[in-house]
Amino acid sequence: MGSVAKHHFYIEDALLRPAVHHQSFEKLWETKWKTPCQMGIYPFMFGSIVDFEPVARAIIDKGLKEPYDWDEYAQMFSPKAQELARIAEEAERLGQKDKACEYYLRSSAVYRIARFPAPRSQQQRLAWKAGKEVFYKGAALMEHPIKEVLIPHAHRVDGEGDVIPVNFLVPPSASAASPCPLLIIFTGLDGYRTELAVWQRGWLDKGVATVVVEIPGTGDSPALASDPKSPDRQWSSVLDWVATQHEVDVQKVVVWGFSTGGYYSLRVAHTHASRLLASVSLGGGAHHMFDAAWLRRVNALEYPFDLADTLAHKFGYADLDTFVGEAGKFSLLDDGTLDGRAGCCRVLLVNGNDDEIFPIDDLFVALEHGAPKEARMVRGKKHMGEPDSFVVILQWIHALLGLDADIMHQLRLLPSKTRF
């Protein structure tokens, strides 16, 4: 059950203050989601406020609130997503490539929020499937098309899938004679490869190839969600495949894990240390994220929906109580990962001090065990410490790989800017 002794969290007082956005979808939209939607940033990557405003108003008028009927919730978004897809199809038929690309991606954004935070119901699973289809139609029309690659899961065990679907994008200048660095992006609890693709063009412009891959229990990851060692097998398969990509410099492979993906990037830094140049854990947990005292409180805090239940689903559990009782088996401290004899590759840990999704206490745990690591805490910020954390991480990776240090070019590419 995680730590045996009672742990006093860094944000202990905040754990007793429920967030207002849990009162209703109206509160969620008005206090948490409307502004990022207007800005075209997480979780509305590739989206437009013009598309979401009428859907949000319809949901508000219907009075939806927690606990949500996820089928009912998802169906509220489907008509708009389908409408945008039809506009894209017509534009593509007429040879209007840029318009078709934009509308396919806008459709994928609406489908994303329909299946958000995880496809737990039939309608949400349908939204995930449809969202992938329109995303890859749009991605194929980009100036530098993002391709889906099905990596053979060579290290699979019974019960795991045969392939690991990833996004793969390589700079045109890369070749076997002049291989480029590779950044492997580990996605999070709710942001999958169709979303974190938003980072890929910026890295291509810097001469860095990218792979975007989903963590166990999310998206299309074939790994057994409830097996703490399944990610080790998945990353072995991914890195074996990377070794066959001759335009990639296997001596310059960096991992960047976002949120829950940060937990996995910290783990892979230890389990596959010899195969990585470095690993970044942004907003990731390690140990106390699995404490019963934490999991019993986080449903009412920073996360838009029911975080603990979503985590239980992600880790392969049908109910929260069972997950809380067994979650300690995923601790990187209790399972010996952090103190392993093999040590770790170079590691950067970054998070906001006031994170209410994964406790900042886990950053301390990672620093207190095993090989020395680098870290930055962003004061006054919550989960992942955005946007300050992006500046810290981009500067660190640029210095590590000897890039041009012009990080603003990349940051300017993140917000979606609709033209049509």
Description:
With 420 residues, this protein is an alpha/beta fold. It has helices at 25-39, 49-62, 70-75, 78-93, 97-115, 122-139, 200-205, 230-242, 260-271, 292-295, 307-314, 320-326, 361-368, 388-401, 408-412; strands at 147-152, 163-169, 180-186, 209-213, 248-258, 278-282, 346-352, 374-378. Strands 1-2-4-3-5-6-7-8 form an eight-stranded mixed β-sheet. The longest helix has 19 residues, at 97-115.
Topology:
Elements: H1 25-39, H2 49-62, H3 70-75, H4 78-93, H5 97-115, H6 122-139, E1 147-152, E2 163-169, E3 180-186, H7 200-205, E4 209-213, H8 230-242, E5 248-258, H9 260-271, E6 278-282, H10 292-295, H11 307-314, H12 320-326, E7 346-352, H13 361-368, E8 374-378, H14 388-401, H15 408-412
Parallel strand pairs: 3-4, 3-5, 5-6, 6-7, 7-8
Antiparallel strand pairs: 1-2, 2-4
Helix pairs in contact: 1-2, 4-5, 5-6, 11-12
In short:
The protein has helices at residues 25-39, 49-62, 70-75, 78-93, 97-115, 122-139, 200-205, 230-242, 260-271, 292-295, 307-314, 320-326, 361-368, 388-401, 408-412; strands at residues 147-152, 163-169, 180-186, 209-213, 248-258, 278-282, 346-352, 374-378.
